[in-house]
Amino acid sequence: MLWWTCYTSFKCGEEALVCLEQMNFEGVEPNPITIVCGLQACEIIGSIEKAQKMHAGILRKASVEMDTAVGNALINMYAKFSMFQNAWNVLYDLPSRDVIAWTALITGYVYHQCYQEALHCFVLMQSEMVTPNPITLISILKACSIGETMDKGLTIYSQMLKLEMVRGESAIGNTLVNMYGKCGLLKKAQELFDQLETKDVISWNALMSAYLAHDHAREALSCFEKMQFFHIFPDVVSFICGLKACCSLGLAKKGLELHAEVVRKGLLDREHIVGNALVDMYAKCGLHVAANEVFDSLSVRDPVSWTSLITVHTQLGLTQSVFSMFSSMLQEGIKPDPVTFTNVLKICSRICCVDEGQLLFDSISKGFGLAPTLEHFTCVMNLLGQAGRLYEAAELIKWMPFDADHAIMHTLLNLYQNFGEVNLGHRTILKATRQEDKDNVPFVHLASMYTDQSRRRSFYESDTDALCIFQ
């Protein structure tokens, strides 16, 4: 039994299952604790086949009702594997459904971002008069961080106040701060933060993240400084928030100070995401040499770090550098993200590399399995338009898997205007603009195109008259 708990405690799933096989070989009957450890081991190594085999063995030898802990472990395991019907089947087979069983199902739904289903479970749990525990509340409040379910979150919070469940539970308080922050209720998040009896680093991080998410970088940076005044030492998340705040405010000097502190704590060597934040901060503050130096020093370069640097070089118009970095990124086996493709397509558009740009655009879906974004379509449309291939640019709208927004329409109309193609512009607007659309901007743009055409015609006619006089 000691070996079982040791192996599962230290996430050694394979070793734990070897022990189980040895037990079976020696004819030792597993008890409920052994079975629970076995299911946890299957979860650790991600083997649903072995887990289902264990479940079948349990059903053959005895009923799940024999031990609630085994049933709860099965629910937890199936929920983590997103096999919710199996989890429900086990739940309904239990003679008594306790808070642990319901919480396992709720946390599984939240883990897989099925927030409405998590709330439905919570309502059913309450209908059975089961009192939630702190873990239940933390999970359900995470589900309520999505805007549509905010009202439910407020209702749950009021229930918690009545039950005095918030007092002394810093984890619940932190989750509430996070919930209010994600929903944009920054004043309420700050008030709740101020009421927390214990403010740990997670509390400060939740508040900083809330401010940053809603473009309050100055308040976020103030939080970063205050937490240290209260002797709360920043962790990785804190430093990333601080660097993002410096980035938004253009405070390169403060960013340099944070960089020095990161190096002193040895975080740059251990946490590559801090390195990514530094590259991004230096790049957006205009310190491109520093951004390159940090990038070169990174032991791990992921799509974020590559994209941050490629973005910098795109902004500087360093064409060959962007192509070279993109090629190096692919050679290192790093899969580009949508932002990377946007930057390279912009460079293609800038130097009018039509064929290369089209090949790159095609590779987004065919080569990398990503769905092209509206920005990708806009870049290619611009590229084709600059090459004078206006009909191809217009045809691109038909192939988009989403409606053309005004930004892409304006891009197309600008191209028509540059080439004096008023008729094409008129037809495009009539096709793409819905009757219920009350935005008159495209029509204003079209009027401008007709005005330009009229001016050109007037200039041409006056110029012809002048030539006749001299003749």
UniProtKB/TrEMBL annotation:
Q: Does the keyword Transcription regulation apply?
A: no
Q: Would the keyword S-adenosyl-L-methionine be found if you checked this record's keyword annotation?
A: no
Annotated GO molecular function terms are:
RNA binding
Question: Mind listing the GO biological process terms from this record?
Answer: RNA modification; system development
Q: Which keywords annotate this record? A: Repeat
Top-level taxon in the UniProt lineage:
Eukaryota
Spans of the PPR repeats are 98-132, 200-234, 302-336
NCBIfam families per the UniProt record, alphabetical: PPR
* Annotated protein name in UniProt: Pentatricopeptide repeat-containing protein
Species of the source = Ceratopteris richardii
